[in-house]
Design brief:
2 domains; eight-stranded parallel β-barrel; binds glyoxylic acid; binds magnesium ion
């Protein structure tokens, strides 16, 4: 039997902007520390050439241990399980810097078993190294047809799983989508959003398992308007953040995935008003008018989501609810 759905969203780490940093570049490992990204992921996978992978492991261990990542979620992306590198990526990084690491990102996940493999390996390393067992999370990248088909099982495979991430570039290749421009619509498809099904499928699996849903990269890094447009779509659906590949995309992501000030104020107002009207002092009413709109328990749930995202983004409210007197 599954546990009843929770009505309060659990507090999750902010991940509006998830900055990709190639582990082979000591320069970028240094620079990333000064950028206002919510999360950094130090990469051992596709941004690192095969001959540079070993050196990148050492760079990443050094950067995690000696760098100043204050306030950021620290993640390392290892190579996927069809390669020969994965186990040594995990062992080297977690043995070397497990105490300074928040999560391991597993790319191209195709089944729940792959997540279970990582969970077990992490536990063995944590026990061996005297680290807190279970603290290091898992981020699962959904990047091919097999992964999407198994996304519900992947999401539920381990309590360590914190996020599901859409990997558009690999995904587009995996399904033979006829385009080379990551994130934009494939030419010739003019009847909707070619990514809608994939994004919604990932979002449903994430929400059903209390996880975050993260959108992948937008590769045209000079086109900030394009980044905002594409990010705005997944943010509107409910995604929590997006990958950023360049410093210029960081602020844009932080803004797009935070609620607008007006919406945040409105959400806090609904919460206060609902609290008041359902209390004895407010008349124990379940459905009331707040200005021009009717609010009830479902409004409270929607408001909780927006308020939680606003609080996590550090917004402060600019208006308050005044309970009617008399
Ligand atoms: C990211 O890893 C992607 O494939 O888009
Ligand atoms: Mg990929």
């Amino acid at each position: 039997m599954t546990a009843p759905a929770k009505s309060e969203p659990k507090a999750l780490r902010p991940r509006r902007s998830c900055l990709a940093v190639p582990g082979s570049s000591t320069k970028m490992l240094g620079k990333a520390q000064g950028l206002p990204a919510d999360q950094v992921f130090l990469d051992l996978e596709d941004s690192v050439a095969p001959l540079a992978k070993e050196g990148a492991r050492a760079n990443i261990v050094g950067a995690l241990k000696e760098g100043d990542w204050a306030g950021k979620t620290r993640v390392v992306r290892v190579n996927d399980l069809t390669t020969r590198w994965t186990y040594r990526d995990v062992v080297t990084v977690v043995e070397g810097a497990g105490a300074d690491l928040d999560a391991v990102m597993l790319p191209k996940v195709q089944s729940a078993e792959q997540v279970v493999w990582l969970d077990l390996l992490l536990r063995q390393i944590e026990e061996t190294m005297g680290l807190e067992v279970g603290r290091i999370g898992i981020e699962a990248q959904i990047e091919n047809a097999a992964g999407l088909i198994a996304v519900d099982e992947i999401a539920a495979a381990s309590p360590r799983v914190e996020t599901l991430i859409f990997g558009p570039a690999d995904f587009m290749a995996s399904i033979n989508m006829r385009t080379l421009v990551v994130g934009e619509q494939p030419p010739g498809y003019d009847v909707g959003d070619a990514y809608h099904y994939i994004l919604m499928r990932i979002l449903m699996a994430a929400r059903a398992n209390d996880l975050q849903a993260i959108d992948g990269p937008y590769l045209q890094i000079k086109d900030l308007d394009g980044f905002r447009r594409v990010a705005g779509r997944s943010a509107a659906l409910g995604f929590d953040g997006k990958w950023v590949l360049h410093p210029s995309q960081v602020e844009a992501a932080n803004e797009v995935y935070s609620p607008a000030q007006d919406d945040y104020d409105h959400a806090e107002l609904i919460l206060d008003a609902y609290d008041h009207y359902t209390s004895e002092a407010g008349g124990t009413r379940g459905a009331v008018m707040l200005g021009e709109e009717m609010i009830d328990e479902a409004s409270r749930k929607m408001a909780l989501v927006v308020a939680a995202k606003g609080r996590a983004a550090g917004l402060s409210r600019t208006s308050k609810f005044d309970a009617p007197t008399g």
